[in-house]
Amino acid sequence: IINKQLIFLYFFSVTPWLAPIVWEGTFNPLVVDSIYKPMHLSIATTVFAVGKYVRFLRDFLETAEKHFMVDFKVRYYIFTDRGGDVPAVVLAPGRKVTIIPVPGSNRWQEISSRRMEMIQTTIENQIGKEADYIFCLDVDTKFHGRWGAETLSRLVAAVHPGYYKQTHEHYPYERRPASRAYIPAGEGDYYYGGATIAGYVGDVHKLAKYCREQLEADAANSIEAAWQEESHLNRYLLYNKPTKILSPEYLWQDFKAKTNEVQIIRFSQVNKNYAEVRPNVKKRK
Ligand code: UD2
């Protein structure tokens, strides 16, 4: 009897350009750890908690301490306009928090989009000198399972959990040629979620700078891409292929029922009341 899970892994664990897609069963954690732990890497992790989103920080940090890059040197860079409300969470040795003050905003689209600019400039001013790898993560999330060195590579993105079973004609790419995020019909590999970007600090800097420039060019032409920075990210990754892709195990959404392919949910967006936490309202994806 052929195991359905094995067939699934065989077809969905590598991209057409031979980058691995990381699922449970595609790696041996002991082997991965024995390669990366002796390297004493410094891992930067950026997380934005602007306005009411500070309320998500405690769960994010507490669950990250249990599951995220355990035994690695991790520095969380928390970008917030409410430094006084950042919770004191006990961190394992070698791990710390740095608070980066940022302005608030009346539009969630702007908060979400301006992350690219702030990631770019903070890499230039600080992170570039302090870290080897960087993870840029959404804050309205929790870790539920191992997220370790199997996620390290030069340029890493996560498949959006809403689209991993669909083909590119159904992806919510920006389809208006007037936007710099435009992707023509017939093109596309995967639809990547904006909640997870990672890689070497230099490669993520290049990506963030590109997205920031494209967002600003669109703004100068009074156009906003369908999913803001996520749309520009998807265009960048179409023409600059990631070297490793994280399966939806690494980017789930609590409101979605678990499916057979996803054996373990490692990181998931919590259910939130958009009308309550966002400064302005828009329907969710
Ligand atoms: C999706 C993406 C998100 C981003 C957004 C842009 C996933 C799972 N999520 O999530 O990454 O691309 O669409 O359209 O792919 N934030 C604040 N304060 C605010 C609003 C946002 O700090 O008032 C930060 C916070 O870190 C949050 C992130 O921006 O996690 C993304 O915003 P969101 O979670 O509201 O966006 P959402 O749920 O539509």
From TrEMBL:
It is found in: Membrane. Keywords: Glycosyltransferase, Manganese, Membrane, Metal-binding, Signal, Signal-anchor, Transferase, Transmembrane, Transmembrane helix. Transmembrane segments: none annotated. It comes from the Eukaryota. The keyword Transferase applies. Gene3D superfamilies: Spore Coat Polysaccharide Biosynthesis Protein SpsA, Chain A. One of its GO terms (cellular component) is vesicle. An alpha-L-fucosyl-(1->2)-beta-D-galactosyl derivative binds at H160, E230. GO terms for biological process: carbohydrate metabolic process. GO terms for molecular function: hexosyltransferase activity; metal ion binding. UDP-N-acetyl-alpha-D-galactosamine binds at F48, A49, V50, Y53, D138, V139, D140. PANTHER family: GLOBOSIDE ALPHA-1,3-N-ACETYLGALACTOSAMINYLTRANSFERASE 1, GLYCOSYLTRANSFERASE-RELATED. This is Globoside alpha-1,3-N-acetylgalactosaminyltransferase 1 (FORS blood group). It comes from Hucho hucho.
